[in-house]
Amino acid sequence: MKEIFHSQLKKSRYVAVLTGAGVSAESNIPTFRGSGSNSLWKNHEVTQVACPQAWEKDPGLVWEFYNYRRKMMGDKKFNLAHKALADLEKKLQDQQKTFSLITQNIDDLHFDAGSKNVTRLHGSIWMVRCCKCGYVEKNREVPITNAFNQESSGEKNHYKVEDLPKCKQGCDGILRPNVVWFGESLSKSNINQAFLSAQNCDLFLVIGTSSLVQPASSLIQIAKSSGAKTAVINLEETVADHDADFVFHGKAGEILPELFSV
Ligand code: BV8
Ligand code: ZN
Question: Is the CB of 84 under 6 A from ligand 1?
Fold first, then answer.
C-alpha cells in the first residue's frame, strides 16, 4: 500500500489535504471524539457551548469555555505531523506543483510549523471579532480579561457583560471568538476555496478527522467524484475509510514523515 501511495504522490501535480483535531493530538491538544478524546467540558457537550444559542443565553459561559481552551492551547507546539505537511508543501512548490491545506482546527499550529497555503474552515481561537462593528483582530491574551482569572462559581451567568472583552474601535461592542460555531455558516471565501481545491486536486488526503462535521467532511466525496485519488490517515477507523483509495491507521506524527518521504 505504501509503495503504491508513494508512486501516486510522485506523479501527483496537485495535492489537497483536509486536517482535523487528530493532527494536533500529538501536541497534547485533546480531540473531540475517538479514543483519548473529551467532547465534554464541565459536563457541557462542545456542540452545546460552541453555538450561537449558548452565546445568546450566557456569553460569559462561552467565553469561560474559550478562555479554558486558549489557556490549554497557549503553550502547545506543532508536532511531526504539522511539520511533515509544511515540508511537503515546500517540496511540491520546489517541483512547481500545487499544494492546498484545508484545516478544521482553530489552534493555528499549521502556521507555526511553516505551512503557508492554509484555509482555516472554522476560524482561529487566537482571533476575536466585534459583535457590533465586525472588527477582527489577533488576541493572544490569557486570561481574555482579568475577570476570567479565577474559576467561575458555576452558577448561571456567573460572568457579567462588563467582564467580557470589549471592542477597541470605540463602538463598545462585545468581542467574541472568531470561530465558526455549530449552526453557523462557514465564510463563503473559505468554503469556496476548499471546494475548488477538492475539485481540482488529483490527490486528496484526509488526516486526523472523524469526518463527522459538515460541510468539511463532504470534501472527500467532491474530490473523489472529481477524479482524485483519496487517502485517509487516522488513528482509528472512520466513516471515510470505506471509499478511500488508501487507508493508513496510526499516529499522524509517525505515519506522515514516512508517507511523504519520496
Ligand atoms: C454549517 C470551531 C450551514 C469551534 C468547529 C449537514 C450539512 C451542513 C451542516 C450540518 C449537516 N449535518 C449537521 C450539520 C450541522 C453541523 C455539524 O456538522 N454537526 C456535526 C456535529 C454532526 N455543522 C455545522 O453547524 C457547520 N455549519 O454547516 O452551516 C448551516 C447553518 C445553519 C444550520 C445548519 C447548517 C459548522 C461546523 C463548524 C463547527 N465548529 N470548530 C470550536 O472548535 O470551538 S468543528 C469542531 O469539530 C472542531 O473544529 C473539530 O476540528 C471539528 C471536527 O472534528 P474533528 O476535527 O474530526 O475532530 P474529532 O475529535 O471528531 O476527530 C479526531 C480524529 O483524530 C479521531 O477520528 C481520532 O481517531 C483521530 N486521532 C486522534 N489522535 C490521532 C488521530 N489521528 C491521527 N493521529 C493521531 N495522533
Ligand atoms: Zn466594534
Answer: no
Domains of the chain in start order, with CATH, are 1-29+77-122+186-262 (3.40.50.1220), 30-75+124-179 (3.30.1600.10)
Per the annotation, the verdict on 158 as an active-site residue is no
Centroid of ligand 1 to alpha carbon of 209 (angstroms) = 8
Ligand 1 pocket check for 26: Cβ under 6 Å: yes
Cβ neighbours around 138 below 10 Å, total: 10
- Give the pLDDT score at 34: 67
Question: Among 23, 36, 120, which Cα is nearest to 78's?
Answer: 23
State whether the beta carbon of 76 lies less than 6 angstroms from ligand 1.
Answer: no
pLDDT of residue 38: 65
Rounded to the nearest 10 degrees, the angle between the axes of helix 252-259 and helix 80-94 is 20
Residue 136 alpha carbon to ligand 2 centre in Å: 9
Lowest mean pLDDT among 28-42, 48-62, 102-116, 140-154: 28-42
pLDDT digits (tens, 9 = 90+) for 59-86: 999 999 999 999 999 999 999 999 999 9
Cell of 53: 444559542
